[in-house]
Amino acid sequence: MFMGASTKQGYDIAIKSREIIRDLIKDDIKDLNPYEKDIVERIVHSTADPEYAKLVKISNNFVTESLKSLKNNETILTDINMVKSGITQYDGEVECFIKNEEVIKIAKENKITRAAASLLYASQENFEGILVVGNAPTALYAAMDLIKGNKINIKSIVGVPVGFVGAADSKESLHETDIPNVITEGPKGGTPIAVACINSLIQSLKEV
């Protein structure tokens, strides 16, 4: 299967699309390694927006640490269920705690978002793995605080929340840390980008 294609027609369309994308963004991704190029190409493919080739920023250790975590079948934690639903072909667990009753309770007691509460809950449950955030800046801030306090074992973060309030700042803050991460600069981001990032890594692992 390539880019979700399950028929010859679908496969041919996917291949042609990638050829077009590579030609459109070749100058922007020429300095990236093959894994990083695939991430960016998938993002552009999922959005039909070549501008993402200029907006995606990948830390030097992101791919290495993420592939190591995936190879060990560590858990993937997402900020919302829509992101979870888009993650395919992974042999490990994919979790989302946004509707968990304990998370709702934590959010009310601490007057924080459920996305942030999800990270507190995950830390209590000894979470270990990759965090994938497509929508909630508060999840990124909570993750950074918990990692700084050595309270959660997050190996890498796909941090691409979308929006005009908090999204750009949270991503910039994440990219300035030592946490292995991939972000999109500015307000652009969202579920399709988050899913494209993590599915690229999962597929790359299967092809090794």
What would you say this structure looks like, in words?
This protein has 208 residues and is an alpha/beta fold. It has one domain: Cobalamin biosynthesis CobH/CbiC, precorrin-8X methylmutase (Rossmann fold). Helices cover 55% and strands 12% of the residues. It is built from ten helices and six strands. It has helices at 8-29, 34-47, 52-55, 62-71, 81-86, 101-110, 114-124, 137-148, 167-175, 191-207, and strands at residues 56-58, 75-78, 94-95, 128-133, 153-159, 181-184. Strands 1-6-5-4-2-3 form a six-stranded mixed sheet, sandwiched between helices. α1 crosses α2, α2 (34-47) packs antiparallel against α10 and α4 crosses α10. The longest helix is centred in the first third of the chain and has 22 residues, at 8-29. The mean pLDDT is 94.
